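EI: anyone free to look at a 437-residue chain?
SC: sure, send it
EI:
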Amino acid sequence: MIRVVCLLLVGLVCAPAGGELNDASRAAAGAARWIAASEVQTKGGIAWPADPSDPKSLDTSLYAGTPGPILFFLELYRATGDATYLESARRGADALLASIRGEREAGLYAGIAGTGFTLGETYLITRDAKYRDGALQTVRWLQDHAQTIGRGVQWNDTTDIIAGSSGIGLFLLWAARELDVPEASALAVQAAKRLIERGHVEPPRGIKWMTDLTFPNEMPNFSHGTAGVAYFLATLYRQTHDAQHLEAALAGARYLLSIADTRGDACLIYHDGSPAGKSVYYLSWCHGPAGTARLFYRLYQVTNDRQWLEWTRKSARALVANGGPERVVTPGEWDNVGACCGVAAEGAFFLAMNRITGERQYLDLAKKATTYLLSKAVVMIEASGGFRPSIASSRSCAWRRPAICRVRPGSACGCCTSATRRARRSSCQTIRSRSDQ
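SC: here you go
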């Protein structure tokens, strides 16, 4: 979680200077100190436990493990030029290199594709060939473990962005583009063939995708559902110009609009297809407009049809109308600052909307998210054996994971999210997930 909160902090530096900006920069640096304090020495380098109070909770997933802090330290290095942050990222990447041989899962947020993306990002900053070689090793792993089924390939029964073929496909497209690995693109095309086969045609509404073969409830939004699958297919079309990829992506978008609540000239899609889930609306990246709008904007990019830009705006309108960026679910309340379900991702979305449209209202909303995140930071001071909470000190800070009440550093649910957003604010870099550009 800390990585996305941190990403949000790293991300707003282009805004006019002032006290808020200084607070954001200090919070990102403080989060870095807190994360560094929990590092664990490994044979290959250093790693960060998913739970800092449990050094054995080491995790290599992009969702909750060491890749999150690595990407945070890379962003903080970009923002500040401080080589200390780059050294932390390199040492973490060295540990990831050593972990490849033992990896058993394929996914982007839950497997080796996330490892490959993290190593590739480290290479792009350091230009150290060993990190590119590691990323290429993960591509070869995905080639070797692809299962030929039907017209294409898959790695597991999951279709989604988190652990399934859509997220893996996005990594492969990123590797093809950023690391010049054409065979990765060819494998992504094979994954798309299987995904198109697995779509459920819903006449006359379009096509929907279930998360996997066993989970009974449809989750239609970005992280686990139709929005994420269609986003991958639209992104693939941008590279292949194969009409079947665009047609499937558009069919997925039409299906989503058929189930959306569009009252108030907005666009809001329920959490899941269960009777209870159809009355619950998340607002952030995973199951809400901050994530699903990515599909609408990608369709605008590849078709130049302004209706999709308007649906992107309607998604932002829905978020604001329901209390975002300080609220993450409706109805109900949930104190969540993370990148998956929380305020950090909402702030990142508004920052991206400002970049896309040039409209000040979105920058103001991103600042509002930052102010909220700063208000939720747990300020820490150094003490015997680690850090402890302090009201007065600004030496270090972290964010608590909701419901668990432990401070965690991971990418999707931890401090790296909030603090990286703050650091990016200081470096004038746009909040985005580079693996799906």
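EI: The radius of gyration is 20 Å.
SC: 👍
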